[in-house]
Amino acid sequence: MTGSIRRNSNTRSPGANDLLTSIDQVNVCRHVGRTRQIRNLSFWAAAYGSSLNKNHHYGTTMFLKILGKRPDLSPACHGQKAGKLFASGLNCTQAVLQATTGRKDKDIMKIAKAFGGGISDRKCLCGAITGGLMALGLNGKSIKSGELIDRFRKDQGATCCVALSRGLKWKSKEHLNNCRRITEETAKTVSDML
């Protein structure tokens, strides 16, 4: 998909509200086999004073790259993404971190890997919390770290994997389903805090 764009920092182009009439929908979150869409994004372009050639369509990536903005996804969307990442083989820390920040850097994922399973499968502090703390820190919101831990404890009843997995065989299907649920809920909470 191609098109032209020019930034107009001093004046708004005529018809700024019509800039995105050809872009009725932008895919920002895939979940449960459907696509969540944001409609009527003309206010974004108008706010940025951008001018788009209305004869061309822009894909999500191009549009967001042009505006220099990360999509404003709902917390539920981040939760579902974290669940999918967990199911695909990432641990709880990596899944929460990647789902809430969009970061896939190899070095960051290597660091996060060590915190899965309650810090290297030692069943200590839940890796979903750790991934959330990392996400808050990467977004300049470290001050909310205590709030995340308190909210997690209130929602889940504990913060360590031993207590969260009580009665479940470690790495069993039931245990992994419980971890996925916790990972999804934590990603929603972190997304809400960002």
List the helices and strands and how they pair.
Elements: E1 5-7, E2 25-31, E3 34-39, H1 42-48, E4 50-52, H2 60-67, H3 75-87, H4 92-101, H5 106-113, H6 127-138, H7 145-156, H8 161-164, H9 173-193
Helix pairs in contact: 3-4, 3-9, 4-6, 4-9, 6-7, 6-9, 7-9
Which features does this protein show?
4 strands, 194 residues, 2 domains, disordered N terminus, mainly alpha, two-stranded antiparallel sheet, 49% helix, two-stranded antiparallel ribbon, 9 helices
Describe it.
Mean pLDDT is 75; it is low at 1-61 and 63-69. The strands form two sheets. A two-stranded antiparallel sheet has the order 1-4. It has a two-stranded antiparallel sheet with strand order 2-3. It is built from nine helices and four strands. A hairpin with a 2-residue loop joins strand 2 (25-31) and strand 3. Helix 3 packs antiparallel against helix 9 (173-193), helix 4 packs parallel to helix 9 and helix 6 packs antiparallel against helix 7 (145-156). The protein has helices at residues 42-48, 60-67, 75-87, 92-101, 106-113, 127-138, 145-156, 161-164, 173-193; strands spanning 5-7, 25-31, 34-39, 50-52. It folds into two domains: 5-67, no CATH class; 75-193, no CATH class. With 194 residues, it is mainly alpha-helical.
